[in-house]
Amino acid sequence: MIQTILDALSYGGLYGLAALGIGLVFGVMRLVNFAHGELIAIGAYLMIITIDLGLPLSIIIAVAGTAALALLMELSVFKRLRLAGPSVLLIASFGVSIFLQRSYEIIFGALPISGQIAPWMSGVIEFGDTTITRGSILTIILALALLAGMRFLVENTTLGLQIRAASSDFQTARLLGVRSNYVIGTAFVFSGVLAAAVAFVLVTQRGSVDPLFGVNITILALVGTVIGGLGSLQGAALGGFAVGATISLLNSFLGNYRVYSYTWLFILVIIVLLIRPSGLISNKAFKERA
Amino acid sequence: MSLLSVRGLQAGYGKVQVLFNGHIEVEPGELVGIVGPNGAGKSTFLGALAGSVRPSSGSIEFQGTSIRGRKPEDIVRLGLALVPEGRAIFTDLTVTENLRLGLTGRRDKSGSAKAIAEVTELFPVLASHRGHQAGLLSGGQQQQLAIARALVSEPKLLMLDEPSLGLSPTVIQDVFGVLNKIQELGTAIIVVEQRAHLIMSVASRTLVMREGHVRATLTREDARDETKLAAAYFGTGEDRE
Ligand SMILES: Nc1ncnc2c1ncn2[C@@H]1O[C@H](COP(=O)(O)OP(=O)(O)OP(=O)(O)O)[C@@H](O)[C@H]1O
Ligand SMILES: [Mg+2]
Fold it and tell me: What gap in Å lies between CA A135 and CA A157, rounded to an integer?
Protein backbone atom coordinates (compact mmCIF):
# COMPACT_ATOMS: atom_id res chain seq x y z
CA MET A 1 0.00 0.00 0.00
CA ILE A 2 2.73 2.44 0.98
CA GLN A 3 4.67 1.37 -2.07
CA THR A 4 1.62 2.05 -4.24
CA ILE A 5 1.37 5.58 -2.90
CA LEU A 6 5.11 6.17 -3.27
CA ASP A 7 4.98 4.87 -6.81
CA ALA A 8 2.11 7.20 -7.62
CA LEU A 9 3.97 10.15 -6.12
CA SER A 10 7.21 9.36 -7.91
CA TYR A 11 5.49 8.80 -11.26
CA GLY A 12 3.56 11.97 -10.69
CA GLY A 13 6.74 13.88 -9.94
CA LEU A 14 8.47 12.46 -12.99
CA TYR A 15 5.63 13.32 -15.37
CA GLY A 16 5.32 16.70 -13.65
CA LEU A 17 8.96 17.43 -14.55
CA ALA A 18 8.39 16.38 -18.16
CA ALA A 19 5.23 18.49 -18.41
CA LEU A 20 6.91 21.51 -16.84
CA GLY A 21 9.69 21.31 -19.43
CA ILE A 22 7.10 21.33 -22.19
CA GLY A 23 5.04 24.03 -20.45
CA LEU A 24 7.99 26.40 -20.10
CA VAL A 25 8.62 26.48 -23.82
CA PHE A 26 4.92 26.59 -24.61
CA GLY A 27 4.55 29.55 -22.26
CA VAL A 28 7.06 31.82 -23.92
CA MET A 29 6.52 30.87 -27.54
CA ARG A 30 3.22 28.97 -27.85
CA LEU A 31 5.14 26.02 -29.23
CA VAL A 32 4.03 22.51 -28.36
CA ASN A 33 7.44 20.91 -28.62
CA PHE A 34 7.05 17.28 -29.61
CA ALA A 35 10.83 17.03 -29.81
CA HIS A 36 10.96 17.23 -26.01
CA GLY A 37 10.97 13.42 -26.10
CA GLU A 38 14.18 13.44 -28.11
CA LEU A 39 15.75 15.70 -25.49
CA ILE A 40 14.91 13.06 -22.90
CA ALA A 41 16.38 10.41 -25.19
CA ILE A 42 19.68 12.24 -25.72
CA GLY A 43 19.99 12.66 -21.96
CA ALA A 44 19.67 8.91 -21.54
CA TYR A 45 22.10 8.16 -24.39
CA LEU A 46 24.70 10.52 -22.97
CA MET A 47 24.38 8.98 -19.53
CA ILE A 48 24.74 5.42 -20.74
CA ILE A 49 27.65 6.27 -23.03
CA THR A 50 29.60 8.19 -20.40
CA ILE A 51 28.73 6.17 -17.28
CA ASP A 52 32.24 4.72 -17.19
CA LEU A 53 33.50 8.19 -16.29
CA GLY A 54 31.61 7.90 -13.02
CA LEU A 55 28.04 8.93 -12.21
CA PRO A 56 28.60 12.59 -11.26
CA LEU A 57 30.53 13.40 -14.43
CA SER A 58 28.07 11.39 -16.49
CA ILE A 59 25.16 13.38 -15.07
CA ILE A 60 26.93 16.68 -15.73
CA ILE A 61 27.61 15.68 -19.33
CA ALA A 62 24.02 14.54 -19.82
CA VAL A 63 22.55 17.74 -18.38
CA ALA A 64 24.89 19.99 -20.33
CA GLY A 65 24.44 18.02 -23.55
CA THR A 66 20.65 17.94 -23.29
CA ALA A 67 20.45 21.67 -22.52
CA ALA A 68 22.79 22.34 -25.45
CA LEU A 69 20.63 20.32 -27.83
CA ALA A 70 17.54 22.17 -26.61
CA LEU A 71 19.22 25.50 -27.29
CA LEU A 72 20.44 24.26 -30.66
CA MET A 73 16.85 23.36 -31.63
CA GLU A 74 15.78 26.89 -30.82
CA LEU A 75 18.66 28.60 -32.60
CA SER A 76 18.68 26.45 -35.71
CA VAL A 77 14.94 25.92 -36.26
CA PHE A 78 12.46 27.72 -34.06
CA LYS A 79 14.22 31.08 -34.03
CA ARG A 80 13.81 31.22 -37.78
CA LEU A 81 10.07 30.67 -37.43
CA ARG A 82 9.29 33.56 -35.08
CA LEU A 83 6.75 35.08 -37.43
CA ALA A 84 5.11 31.75 -38.26
CA GLY A 85 1.81 30.69 -36.74
CA PRO A 86 1.31 27.98 -34.10
CA SER A 87 0.48 25.30 -36.68
CA VAL A 88 3.75 25.85 -38.53
CA LEU A 89 5.64 25.64 -35.23
CA LEU A 90 3.82 22.44 -34.32
CA ILE A 91 4.69 20.77 -37.61
CA ALA A 92 8.28 22.01 -37.36
CA SER A 93 8.59 20.42 -33.94
CA PHE A 94 7.27 17.13 -35.39
CA GLY A 95 9.95 17.47 -38.04
CA VAL A 96 12.68 18.05 -35.46
CA SER A 97 11.40 15.10 -33.43
CA ILE A 98 11.49 12.68 -36.34
CA PHE A 99 14.81 14.05 -37.60
CA LEU A 100 16.37 13.41 -34.20
CA GLN A 101 14.86 9.93 -33.88
CA ARG A 102 16.36 8.98 -37.25
CA SER A 103 19.68 10.56 -36.31
CA TYR A 104 19.81 8.52 -33.10
CA GLU A 105 19.04 5.43 -35.17
CA ILE A 106 21.96 6.19 -37.49
CA ILE A 107 24.38 7.15 -34.74
CA PHE A 108 23.46 4.71 -31.96
CA GLY A 109 21.53 2.03 -33.89
CA ALA A 110 17.85 1.12 -33.78
CA LEU A 111 18.28 -1.47 -31.04
CA PRO A 112 18.29 -0.58 -27.35
CA ILE A 113 21.67 0.13 -25.75
CA SER A 114 21.84 -0.99 -22.15
CA GLY A 115 23.87 0.31 -19.28
CA GLN A 116 23.85 0.20 -15.50
CA ILE A 117 23.08 3.68 -14.25
CA ALA A 118 22.98 4.10 -10.48
CA PRO A 119 22.01 0.48 -9.70
CA TRP A 120 21.48 1.47 -6.06
CA MET A 121 18.33 3.29 -7.19
CA SER A 122 16.57 -0.06 -7.65
CA GLY A 123 17.40 -1.32 -4.16
CA VAL A 124 14.79 -1.58 -1.43
CA ILE A 125 14.55 -0.18 2.06
CA GLU A 126 12.88 -2.34 4.69
CA PHE A 127 10.69 -1.06 7.48
CA GLY A 128 9.71 -4.17 9.42
CA ASP A 129 7.11 -5.84 7.16
CA THR A 130 6.96 -3.25 4.45
CA THR A 131 9.63 -2.73 1.85
CA ILE A 132 9.81 0.28 -0.38
CA THR A 133 12.03 0.91 -3.39
CA ARG A 134 14.79 3.42 -3.04
CA GLY A 135 14.10 4.66 -6.57
CA SER A 136 10.65 5.92 -5.73
CA ILE A 137 11.89 7.88 -2.71
CA LEU A 138 14.80 9.39 -4.61
CA THR A 139 12.58 10.27 -7.57
CA ILE A 140 10.18 12.07 -5.26
CA ILE A 141 13.06 13.99 -3.68
CA LEU A 142 14.56 14.87 -7.06
CA ALA A 143 11.21 16.00 -8.44
CA LEU A 144 10.40 18.07 -5.38
CA ALA A 145 13.82 19.72 -5.43
CA LEU A 146 13.60 20.59 -9.12
CA LEU A 147 10.00 21.77 -8.94
CA ALA A 148 10.84 23.94 -5.92
CA GLY A 149 13.94 25.27 -7.67
CA MET A 150 12.00 26.14 -10.81
CA ARG A 151 9.29 27.73 -8.71
CA PHE A 152 11.81 29.90 -6.91
CA LEU A 153 13.37 30.91 -10.18
CA VAL A 154 10.08 31.79 -11.83
CA GLU A 155 8.53 33.53 -8.82
CA ASN A 156 11.49 35.30 -7.26
CA THR A 157 13.99 36.34 -9.89
CA THR A 158 13.95 39.06 -12.51
CA LEU A 159 14.44 36.46 -15.22
CA GLY A 160 11.44 34.56 -13.85
CA LEU A 161 9.35 37.73 -13.87
CA GLN A 162 10.29 38.25 -17.50
CA ILE A 163 9.39 34.64 -18.31
CA ARG A 164 6.00 35.06 -16.65
CA ALA A 165 5.36 38.31 -18.49
CA ALA A 166 6.47 36.87 -21.82
CA SER A 167 4.25 33.85 -21.22
CA SER A 168 1.12 35.89 -20.75
CA ASP A 169 1.70 38.64 -23.35
CA PHE A 170 4.83 38.41 -25.41
CA GLN A 171 4.28 41.57 -27.47
CA THR A 172 3.78 43.80 -24.46
CA ALA A 173 6.74 42.24 -22.65
CA ARG A 174 8.95 43.14 -25.62
CA LEU A 175 7.63 46.70 -25.66
CA LEU A 176 8.85 46.98 -22.07
CA GLY A 177 12.30 45.81 -23.05
CA VAL A 178 12.14 42.08 -22.36
CA ARG A 179 14.64 40.51 -24.75
CA SER A 180 12.63 37.93 -26.66
CA ASN A 181 15.51 35.78 -27.88
CA TYR A 182 17.11 35.66 -24.46
CA VAL A 183 13.91 34.66 -22.66
CA ILE A 184 13.02 32.01 -25.22
CA GLY A 185 16.60 30.71 -25.23
CA THR A 186 16.63 30.31 -21.46
CA ALA A 187 13.24 28.59 -21.51
CA PHE A 188 14.70 26.02 -23.92
CA VAL A 189 17.78 25.55 -21.74
CA PHE A 190 15.62 24.96 -18.65
CA SER A 191 13.43 22.54 -20.55
CA GLY A 192 16.61 20.69 -21.53
CA VAL A 193 17.76 20.49 -17.91
CA LEU A 194 14.35 19.14 -16.85
CA ALA A 195 14.45 16.63 -19.73
CA ALA A 196 17.84 15.39 -18.49
CA ALA A 197 16.42 14.86 -15.00
CA VAL A 198 13.56 12.85 -16.47
CA ALA A 199 16.08 10.88 -18.54
CA PHE A 200 18.08 10.05 -15.43
CA VAL A 201 15.09 8.57 -13.59
CA LEU A 202 13.78 6.70 -16.63
CA VAL A 203 17.13 5.21 -17.56
CA THR A 204 17.74 3.92 -14.04
CA GLN A 205 14.34 2.22 -14.20
CA ARG A 206 14.66 0.75 -17.68
CA GLY A 207 18.40 0.16 -17.91
CA SER A 208 18.45 0.82 -21.64
CA VAL A 209 17.78 3.49 -24.23
CA ASP A 210 16.51 3.37 -27.81
CA PRO A 211 15.62 6.09 -30.35
CA LEU A 212 11.97 6.23 -29.20
CA PHE A 213 12.93 6.34 -25.51
CA GLY A 214 11.20 9.66 -24.74
CA VAL A 215 8.14 9.44 -26.97
CA ASN A 216 5.71 7.81 -24.57
CA ILE A 217 6.31 10.05 -21.59
CA THR A 218 6.25 13.14 -23.80
CA ILE A 219 2.80 12.34 -25.18
CA LEU A 220 1.47 11.72 -21.68
CA ALA A 221 3.15 14.86 -20.35
CA LEU A 222 1.55 16.82 -23.19
CA VAL A 223 -1.81 15.46 -22.08
CA GLY A 224 -0.84 16.65 -18.61
CA THR A 225 -0.10 20.19 -19.76
CA VAL A 226 -3.49 20.32 -21.47
CA ILE A 227 -5.29 19.04 -18.38
CA GLY A 228 -3.39 21.46 -16.18
CA GLY A 229 -4.26 24.39 -18.37
CA LEU A 230 -2.07 25.53 -21.24
CA GLY A 231 -0.15 28.66 -20.52
CA SER A 232 0.20 28.15 -16.77
CA LEU A 233 3.45 26.69 -15.45
CA GLN A 234 1.86 25.58 -12.21
CA GLY A 235 -0.93 24.00 -14.23
CA ALA A 236 1.56 22.14 -16.43
CA ALA A 237 3.42 20.66 -13.46
CA LEU A 238 0.18 19.79 -11.70
CA GLY A 239 -1.39 18.28 -14.83
CA GLY A 240 1.73 16.21 -15.46
CA PHE A 241 1.66 15.05 -11.87
CA ALA A 242 -2.01 14.06 -12.15
CA VAL A 243 -1.41 12.03 -15.30
CA GLY A 244 1.67 10.27 -13.91
CA ALA A 245 0.06 9.47 -10.58
CA THR A 246 -3.12 8.24 -12.26
CA ILE A 247 -1.22 5.93 -14.61
CA SER A 248 0.72 4.50 -11.71
CA LEU A 249 -2.42 3.94 -9.60
CA LEU A 250 -4.28 2.40 -12.53
CA ASN A 251 -1.37 0.07 -13.14
CA SER A 252 -1.40 -1.20 -9.58
CA PHE A 253 -5.17 -1.46 -9.19
CA LEU A 254 -5.83 -3.05 -12.56
CA GLY A 255 -3.20 -5.72 -11.92
CA ASN A 256 -3.41 -8.17 -14.81
CA TYR A 257 -5.71 -5.84 -16.68
CA ARG A 258 -3.13 -3.09 -16.73
CA VAL A 259 -3.17 -3.06 -20.53
CA TYR A 260 -6.35 -1.03 -20.11
CA SER A 261 -4.63 1.63 -17.98
CA TYR A 262 -4.36 4.01 -20.89
CA THR A 263 -7.98 3.49 -21.87
CA TRP A 264 -9.06 4.47 -18.37
CA LEU A 265 -6.60 7.34 -18.27
CA PHE A 266 -7.99 8.87 -21.43
CA ILE A 267 -11.58 8.35 -20.28
CA LEU A 268 -10.64 10.34 -17.17
CA VAL A 269 -8.88 12.97 -19.30
CA ILE A 270 -11.99 13.41 -21.43
CA ILE A 271 -14.16 13.76 -18.33
CA VAL A 272 -11.82 16.36 -16.83
CA LEU A 273 -11.79 18.35 -20.05
CA LEU A 274 -15.58 18.16 -20.35
CA ILE A 275 -15.91 19.62 -16.87
CA ARG A 276 -13.05 22.12 -17.14
CA PRO A 277 -12.34 22.74 -20.84
CA SER A 278 -9.54 25.20 -20.11
CA GLY A 279 -7.76 22.90 -17.69
CA LEU A 280 -7.46 22.56 -13.94
CA ILE A 281 -5.65 25.88 -13.54
CA SER A 282 -6.79 28.18 -16.29
CA ASN A 283 -4.56 31.13 -16.90
CA LYS A 284 -6.74 34.22 -17.16
CA ALA A 285 -3.94 36.22 -18.62
CA PHE A 286 -3.30 33.58 -21.29
CA LYS A 287 -3.27 35.25 -24.68
CA GLU A 288 -2.94 33.90 -28.17
CA ARG A 289 0.33 34.99 -29.71
CA ALA A 290 -0.49 37.79 -32.14
CA MET B 1 17.09 68.80 -34.42
CA SER B 2 13.76 67.08 -33.89
CA LEU B 3 13.49 64.37 -31.28
CA LEU B 4 11.53 62.21 -33.70
CA SER B 5 11.37 62.66 -37.43
CA VAL B 6 9.35 60.22 -39.54
CA ARG B 7 8.84 60.34 -43.29
CA GLY B 8 6.83 58.25 -45.75
CA LEU B 9 6.32 55.37 -43.35
CA GLN B 10 4.53 52.32 -44.73
CA ALA B 11 3.50 49.23 -42.79
CA GLY B 12 0.93 46.45 -42.70
CA TYR B 13 0.13 42.94 -41.61
CA GLY B 14 1.24 40.17 -43.91
CA LYS B 15 0.31 41.20 -47.43
CA VAL B 16 -2.27 43.74 -46.29
CA GLN B 17 -0.87 47.24 -46.25
CA VAL B 18 -2.49 49.47 -43.64
CA LEU B 19 -0.20 52.47 -43.28
CA PHE B 20 0.54 54.25 -46.56
CA ASN B 21 2.06 57.51 -45.54
CA GLY B 22 2.92 58.08 -41.91
CA HIS B 23 4.90 61.20 -41.12
CA ILE B 24 5.42 63.16 -37.93
CA GLU B 25 7.90 65.52 -36.30
CA VAL B 26 8.17 65.78 -32.52
CA GLU B 27 10.33 68.31 -30.71
CA PRO B 28 11.76 67.53 -27.25
CA GLY B 29 9.12 68.00 -24.55
CA GLU B 30 6.31 68.54 -27.03
CA LEU B 31 2.82 66.98 -26.82
CA VAL B 32 1.50 65.90 -30.22
CA GLY B 33 -1.94 64.42 -30.83
CA ILE B 34 -3.12 61.96 -33.45
CA VAL B 35 -6.82 61.66 -34.26
CA GLY B 36 -8.76 59.79 -36.90
CA PRO B 37 -11.67 57.38 -37.36
CA ASN B 38 -11.56 53.69 -36.44
CA GLY B 39 -9.31 51.70 -38.72
CA ALA B 40 -7.40 54.76 -39.90
CA GLY B 41 -4.13 53.09 -38.98
CA LYS B 42 -3.29 55.07 -35.84
CA SER B 43 -2.32 52.04 -33.76
CA THR B 44 -0.41 50.60 -36.69
CA PHE B 45 1.51 53.87 -36.98
CA LEU B 46 2.51 53.84 -33.30
CA GLY B 47 3.32 50.12 -33.52
CA ALA B 48 5.62 50.78 -36.46
CA LEU B 49 7.43 53.48 -34.48
CA ALA B 50 7.80 51.22 -31.43
CA GLY B 51 9.01 48.28 -33.52
CA SER B 52 6.11 45.90 -32.88
CA VAL B 53 4.86 46.31 -36.46
CA ARG B 54 7.51 45.97 -39.15
CA PRO B 55 7.66 48.96 -41.52
CA SER B 56 8.08 48.15 -45.21
CA SER B 57 9.47 51.53 -46.22
CA GLY B 58 10.04 55.07 -45.05
CA SER B 59 12.38 56.54 -42.47
CA ILE B 60 12.24 56.85 -38.68
CA GLU B 61 14.88 59.02 -37.07
CA PHE B 62 14.91 59.18 -33.29
CA GLN B 63 17.48 61.52 -31.75
CA GLY B 64 19.25 61.65 -35.07
CA THR B 65 19.67 57.92 -35.62
CA SER B 66 17.59 55.61 -37.77
CA ILE B 67 15.58 53.10 -35.73
CA ARG B 68 13.53 51.60 -38.55
CA GLY B 69 13.54 47.81 -38.43
CA ARG B 70 14.92 47.63 -34.90
CA LYS B 71 13.35 45.36 -32.30
CA PRO B 72 10.87 46.78 -29.78
CA GLU B 73 13.09 45.73 -26.87
CA ASP B 74 15.93 47.81 -28.34
CA ILE B 75 13.78 50.80 -29.24
CA VAL B 76 12.46 51.19 -25.69
CA ARG B 77 16.06 51.22 -24.45
CA LEU B 78 16.76 54.14 -26.77
CA GLY B 79 14.04 56.13 -24.99
CA LEU B 80 10.94 55.60 -27.13
CA ALA B 81 8.17 53.88 -25.13
CA LEU B 82 4.67 52.81 -26.19
CA VAL B 83 1.65 52.22 -23.96
CA PRO B 84 -0.41 50.05 -26.30
CA GLU B 85 -4.13 50.25 -26.89
CA GLY B 86 -6.24 48.52 -24.24
CA ARG B 87 -3.63 49.06 -21.50
CA ALA B 88 -2.02 45.63 -21.81
CA ILE B 89 -1.02 45.35 -18.19
CA PHE B 90 -0.17 41.92 -16.81
CA THR B 91 -3.33 41.18 -14.85
CA ASP B 92 -1.86 38.09 -13.13
CA LEU B 93 1.12 40.00 -11.79
CA THR B 94 1.11 42.47 -8.92
CA VAL B 95 1.29 46.23 -9.37
CA THR B 96 4.92 46.19 -8.21
CA GLU B 97 5.82 43.37 -10.58
CA ASN B 98 4.30 45.31 -13.46
CA LEU B 99 6.38 48.33 -12.55
CA ARG B 100 9.52 46.22 -12.16
CA LEU B 101 8.99 44.92 -15.69
CA GLY B 102 9.04 48.52 -16.86
CA LEU B 103 12.58 48.76 -15.49
CA THR B 104 13.72 46.24 -18.09
CA GLY B 105 13.77 49.00 -20.67
CA ARG B 106 16.06 51.32 -18.69
CA ARG B 107 19.49 52.04 -20.07
CA ASP B 108 20.84 52.98 -16.67
CA LYS B 109 19.89 50.38 -14.08
CA SER B 110 21.30 52.30 -11.13
CA GLY B 111 18.37 54.68 -10.77
CA SER B 112 15.76 51.90 -10.69
CA ALA B 113 14.50 52.35 -7.15
CA LYS B 114 14.33 56.10 -7.58
CA ALA B 115 12.39 55.78 -10.84
CA ILE B 116 9.75 53.61 -9.18
CA ALA B 117 9.51 56.03 -6.26
CA GLU B 118 9.02 58.92 -8.68
CA VAL B 119 6.21 57.34 -10.66
CA THR B 120 4.37 56.25 -7.54
CA GLU B 121 4.54 59.89 -6.47
CA LEU B 122 2.94 60.80 -9.78
CA PHE B 123 0.28 58.09 -9.34
CA PRO B 124 -0.31 57.81 -5.58
CA VAL B 125 -3.05 55.23 -6.09
CA LEU B 126 -0.42 52.74 -7.25
CA ALA B 127 1.49 53.04 -4.00
CA SER B 128 -1.55 52.03 -1.98
CA HIS B 129 -2.19 49.00 -4.23
CA ARG B 130 1.45 47.92 -4.47
CA GLY B 131 1.06 44.24 -3.61
CA HIS B 132 -2.33 43.75 -5.28
CA GLN B 133 -2.91 41.76 -8.41
CA ALA B 134 -3.05 44.27 -11.25
CA GLY B 135 -6.18 42.62 -12.65
CA LEU B 136 -8.09 43.74 -9.56
CA LEU B 137 -7.50 47.44 -10.27
CA SER B 138 -10.24 49.56 -11.83
CA GLY B 139 -9.98 50.54 -15.48
CA GLY B 140 -8.63 53.97 -14.67
CA GLN B 141 -6.11 52.58 -12.22
CA GLN B 142 -4.97 50.02 -14.79
CA GLN B 143 -4.44 52.80 -17.31
CA GLN B 144 -2.39 54.72 -14.77
CA LEU B 145 -0.36 51.59 -14.08
CA ALA B 146 0.29 51.13 -17.81
CA ILE B 147 1.51 54.72 -18.10
CA ALA B 148 3.59 54.46 -14.93
CA ARG B 149 5.15 51.22 -16.13
CA ALA B 150 6.25 52.91 -19.35
CA LEU B 151 7.57 55.90 -17.42
CA VAL B 152 9.97 53.95 -15.21
CA SER B 153 12.10 53.35 -18.29
CA GLU B 154 12.49 57.17 -18.39
CA PRO B 155 11.56 57.62 -22.03
CA LYS B 156 12.41 60.75 -23.97
CA LEU B 157 9.22 60.19 -25.92
CA LEU B 158 6.16 58.45 -24.53
CA MET B 159 3.49 57.20 -26.95
CA LEU B 160 -0.02 56.53 -25.64
CA ASP B 161 -2.60 54.69 -27.72
CA GLU B 162 -6.09 55.81 -26.67
CA PRO B 163 -5.47 56.18 -22.95
CA SER B 164 -9.06 57.36 -22.46
CA LEU B 165 -10.61 54.18 -23.86
CA GLY B 166 -13.35 52.90 -21.56
CA LEU B 167 -12.76 55.52 -18.86
CA SER B 168 -15.32 57.87 -17.34
CA PRO B 169 -14.98 61.62 -18.05
CA THR B 170 -13.59 62.44 -14.59
CA VAL B 171 -10.99 59.69 -14.82
CA ILE B 172 -10.06 60.92 -18.28
CA GLN B 173 -9.47 64.35 -16.77
CA ASP B 174 -7.14 62.77 -14.20
CA VAL B 175 -5.18 60.88 -16.83
CA PHE B 176 -4.80 63.95 -19.02
CA GLY B 177 -3.79 65.97 -15.98
CA VAL B 178 -0.95 63.54 -15.41
CA LEU B 179 0.09 63.89 -19.04
CA ASN B 180 0.60 67.58 -18.40
CA LYS B 181 2.83 66.80 -15.43
CA ILE B 182 4.84 64.28 -17.42
CA GLN B 183 5.32 66.86 -20.13
CA GLU B 184 6.44 69.43 -17.57
CA LEU B 185 9.12 66.96 -16.47
CA GLY B 186 10.53 67.21 -19.98
CA THR B 187 9.14 64.09 -21.64
CA ALA B 188 7.70 64.46 -25.12
CA ILE B 189 4.36 62.72 -25.69
CA ILE B 190 2.34 61.43 -28.62
CA VAL B 191 -1.29 60.66 -27.80
CA VAL B 192 -3.73 58.86 -30.06
CA GLU B 193 -7.23 59.92 -29.14
CA GLN B 194 -10.71 59.47 -30.61
CA ARG B 195 -12.06 62.60 -28.95
CA ALA B 196 -10.54 65.28 -31.16
CA HIS B 197 -11.53 68.21 -28.94
CA LEU B 198 -10.04 66.64 -25.85
CA ILE B 199 -6.60 66.19 -27.35
CA MET B 200 -6.51 69.37 -29.39
CA SER B 201 -6.93 71.46 -26.28
CA VAL B 202 -3.69 70.13 -24.80
CA ALA B 203 -1.56 69.25 -27.82
CA SER B 204 0.56 71.80 -29.60
CA ARG B 205 -0.21 70.08 -32.90
CA THR B 206 -2.64 67.32 -33.84
CA LEU B 207 -2.29 65.05 -36.85
CA VAL B 208 -5.39 63.78 -38.57
CA MET B 209 -5.17 60.27 -40.02
CA ARG B 210 -7.50 58.66 -42.50
CA GLU B 211 -7.14 55.43 -44.48
CA GLY B 212 -3.51 55.01 -43.64
CA HIS B 213 -2.44 58.54 -44.47
CA VAL B 214 -1.63 61.52 -42.30
CA ARG B 215 -4.00 63.94 -44.03
CA ALA B 216 -3.60 67.14 -42.07
CA THR B 217 -1.81 68.80 -39.20
CA LEU B 218 -3.96 71.07 -37.07
CA THR B 219 -2.81 73.67 -34.60
CA ARG B 220 -4.53 74.59 -31.37
CA GLU B 221 -6.22 77.50 -33.14
CA ASP B 222 -7.67 75.19 -35.76
CA ALA B 223 -9.41 73.27 -32.98
CA ARG B 224 -11.80 76.16 -32.47
CA ASP B 225 -12.73 76.10 -36.14
CA GLU B 226 -15.39 73.37 -36.34
CA THR B 227 -15.58 73.22 -40.12
CA LYS B 228 -11.83 72.97 -40.54
CA LEU B 229 -11.67 70.19 -37.99
CA ALA B 230 -14.57 68.26 -39.48
CA ALA B 231 -13.17 68.65 -42.96
CA ALA B 232 -9.82 67.26 -41.91
CA TYR B 233 -11.36 64.47 -39.85
CA PHE B 234 -13.87 63.10 -42.30
CA GLY B 235 -12.42 64.31 -45.53
CA THR B 236 -15.71 66.13 -46.23
CA GLY B 237 -17.43 69.13 -44.74
CA GLU B 238 -20.05 67.18 -42.81
CA ASP B 239 -20.14 67.36 -39.06
CA ARG B 240 -20.92 64.14 -37.20
CA GLU B 241 -20.29 65.25 -33.68
N1 LIG C 1 -2.80 42.47 -36.03
C2 LIG C 1 -3.45 42.79 -37.16
N3 LIG C 1 -3.52 41.90 -38.17
C4 LIG C 1 -4.17 42.21 -39.31
N5 LIG C 1 -4.77 43.38 -39.56
C6 LIG C 1 -4.75 44.30 -38.59
C7 LIG C 1 -4.09 44.06 -37.34
N8 LIG C 1 -4.21 45.15 -36.57
C9 LIG C 1 -4.92 46.03 -37.31
N10 LIG C 1 -5.25 45.54 -38.51
C11 LIG C 1 -5.99 46.23 -39.57
O12 LIG C 1 -5.34 47.44 -39.86
C13 LIG C 1 -6.27 48.48 -40.07
C14 LIG C 1 -5.91 49.66 -39.19
O15 LIG C 1 -5.95 49.26 -37.83
P16 LIG C 1 -5.43 50.16 -36.65
O17 LIG C 1 -5.61 49.39 -35.43
O18 LIG C 1 -4.08 50.65 -36.97
O19 LIG C 1 -6.45 51.39 -36.72
P20 LIG C 1 -6.75 52.47 -35.62
O21 LIG C 1 -6.73 53.77 -36.33
O22 LIG C 1 -5.85 52.31 -34.46
O23 LIG C 1 -8.25 52.12 -35.24
P24 LIG C 1 -8.98 52.28 -33.82
O25 LIG C 1 -9.38 53.70 -33.71
O26 LIG C 1 -10.17 51.39 -33.96
O27 LIG C 1 -8.05 51.83 -32.75
C28 LIG C 1 -7.64 47.90 -39.76
O29 LIG C 1 -8.29 47.69 -41.00
C30 LIG C 1 -7.36 46.60 -39.09
O31 LIG C 1 -8.30 45.64 -39.48
MG1 LIG D 1 -6.12 51.86 -32.51
Answer: 32
> Helices (H) and strands (E) in chain B — how many of each?
9, 10
| Share of chain A residues as helix, strand and coil, in percent rounded to the nearest 5 | 75, 5, 20
- Domain chopping of chain B, boundaries: 4-234
pLDDT digits (tens, 9 = 90+) for A131-148: 888 889 999 999 999 999
CA dist A3 and A222 (Å) reads 26
Distance CA B99, CA B129 (A): 12
Residue of A nearest to B150 (CA): A176
CA-to-CA distance for B70 and B84, rounded, in angstroms? 18
* Closest Cβ opposite residue A178 in set B82, B91, B104: B104
Pocket residue to mutate for ligand 1, from B9, B10, B13, B211, most atoms within 8 A of Cβ: B13
CA B137 to ligand 1 center in whole angstroms: 27
Q: Are B118 and B182 in contact (CB under 8 A)?
A: no
Q: How far is B76 from chain A (nearest CA, A)?
A: 6
- pLDDT tens digit sequence for A80-92: 998 888 899 999 9
3-state helix, strand, coil in chain B (%, to 5): 40, 25, 35
ipTM, two decimals, is 0.91
pTM, whole model, 2 decimals?
0.88
CA distance A37 to A244: 16
Q: Which of B24, B47, B43 is nearest to B204 (CA)?
A: B24
CA distance linking residue B1 with residue B20, whole number of Å: 25
Instruction: Give dist(CA A62, CA A51) in Å, integer.
Output: 10
CA dist., res. A38 & res. A195, Å (int) = 9
Distance B193 CA to ligand 2 centre (A): 9
Q: Which of A169, A175, A283 to mutate to test the interface with B (most CBs of B within 10 A)?
A: A175
For the domain bounded by B4-234, which CATH number is listed? 3.40.50.300
